[in-house]
Amino acid sequence: MYFEGAEKRLSLTLVAASPSLRGLGDDFWRRALLKSDTEILSKLSCEQCDAYLLSESSLFVWHDNLVLITCGNTRLIETVLSLVESLGNVQIASLSYQRKSEILPALQSSRFEDDIARLRGMLSGDAYRIGHLDGHHHQLFLSGEMVQLKAVQTVQMYHIRGELADYLLCDRQTAEGIATRLNLSQLLPGFYFDAHLFSPLGYSLNALRGDDYFTVHITPQEASSYVSLETNLSLGEDLGGIVNELLNRLNPVSWDVSGFEAQEPGYCAEQYSLQASGELTLADGLGLYIKHYKQRDCEQLLPVTL
């Protein structure tokens, strides 16, 4: 069984004094998400944010900005175009649309270049690729005032191994058991959680604490195991310790860290070495950084019967 774990991502910020995004209501988001073949499974709310757990990843909505992440074969670009049309160009202060290189891109309904051609019909902006086209790479389209983008950190892990990886494939797993093994209550004190265990495999979690959010998505299938986490926790809030503990528990062969942050993270679990890095300098000291790490030990590749 194959499932494309790598996410497509939208970040959008409204201009000052715009009507609240949260005021649009659940039915609005349900209709918008259906355009990308995505459904709302549950909702977690606090005073500052609404967090929607989706059939493919997550949606976070604040009063003036949103983050939408979808995985699999979803057509996120359809929801993006619908939102731009519904909200109106003049209401959008900044927009970031990102796609990570897929393992099986032929299964996707569109290429990044196709998406950008359609977006440019509605918004002006610049498109970039960081990384080699024939390998690991990130693609993004940026429109508007980049200084309006919120600081965010994204970690993507590939080919997880070990005891926790085995548990994520077994018949006896539970959502509570996964959260316990990830040590989430200790790693994220003060957060409220909303989790879903998919059948036959897969796990998603949203967490909120005031303006802060944290989300984890796990695709444990052996042929394409993948774990992602994203948060707006800053580097000064012990994010490095959280990432290091999850790396030790999930033991991926390789992983990426990327995000919009004025300062790059310096953390790295000792069993990994930095293989590649890139930067995209934007405005007012803000920049996008990407780092790719791989285990120092030589990976033993085993033949697979097809």
TrEMBL record:
Q: Which residues form the signal peptide?
A: none
**Family matches, as PROSITE patterns:** ADOMETDC
Descriptive protein name? Adenosylmethionine decarboxylase
Q: What species does this protein belong to?
A: Shewanella marisflavi
What InterPro entries does the record tag this protein with? AdoMetDC-like, S-AdoMet_deCO2ase_core, S-AdoMet_deCO2ase_CS
Task: Fetch the Pfam families from UniProt.
Answer: SAM_decarbox
